[in-house]
Amino acid sequence: MRVLFLTFAIVLGLPITMRLGANETTCKQIFLTLEDCLFVKYPVPEKGIVCSNYERAFRLSENLDDSEIHKCSWGSFVVIGNYKDEKIFIACAPVGSGSGLLFTELFVAGAKYIIRYGSDDVKLPPESDAYLVKIVDEADNLYGFNLQSGVPTEEWGQSINASTEIVSSLISTAVSKKINYEMRICHHLENYHGLRSPDKFSSERAERLQAILQELKRHPKTASFDMETAVLFRVAKDFGLHAATILQTVKKESPKLSSYEGENYQEARKVEEEIFFNYVLDALLNI
């Protein structure tokens, strides 16, 4: 009877309610197959990590044994290998909402739990954030991707929760490793420079951008910003599957150096190797 109902529902395009875990339900809204995919034409393990920083993803993948890399012409890649004898994947996703393409196809290909490991785009973070793990359990301010995904208008810009299973693992792993962490909401940046530097836009646009920022500041939770987390949470929700994000703080205000050049690069690498790499890999396995 269950199989007949599922088949009937898919044919009619009806939403299917799926259990996620304790007190979590959602309706699967996407029914793509591997044959529909553009980037990912092969099965992937159930657990994986995604980064939008190409070099970080590659460095992280060096922790895997017996790995194989799948590349595509658009710059993304997926490395599949073993970490502590468990098969996982590490993927490089495009920057911004285009990352939703890879996130979607990873879930189509078999992923069930995805952790995004990125960097915080918040303006002028304190120096003390350098060794802080920011666990994102909520994201908002997503409009364009929601529109193009057919999401009901009343959900545009609204909060999307992370997976409680992944968040629980991220917290417990941080505690066991004695790593400093904070819970964050992540506000989506569709235009990186818009909400970070509204003063660099025309007066009319700057006024509109400042109004958006003031509205976001009303949220009681400490805020982070990035260009991918809300998209990941949206896609995971649409599949009835699991996602969460951790953010590292790197220097993005240097006038002459990028975040991964010179001394900025050395500082970022040091924190990666001392804290983030083993932490995120172990948290993934602990789910």
Tell me what the structure shows.
The chain is α/β, with parallel strands linked by helices. The protein has a single domain (22-285), classed as Nucleoside phosphorylase domain (Rossmann fold), CATH 3.40.50. The chain has helices at 2-12, 54-61, 99-108, 144-148, 164-176, 192-196, 203-216, 229-239, 262-285, and strands at 16-21, 24-28, 47-51, 65-71, 77-83, 86-92, 113-119, 133-140, 160-161, 181-188, 223-226, 242-248. A hairpin with a 5-residue loop joins strand 4 and strand 5 (77-83).
In short:
This protein is of the alpha/beta class.
Number of strands: 12
Helix coverage percent:
25-40%
| The named CATH superfamily | Nucleoside phosphorylase domain
Counting DSSP H or I runs of 4 or more residues, the number of helices is 9
Order of helices and strands: HEEEHEEEHEEHEHEHHEHEH
Poorly predicted runs are 1-25
* CATH class wording: Alpha Beta
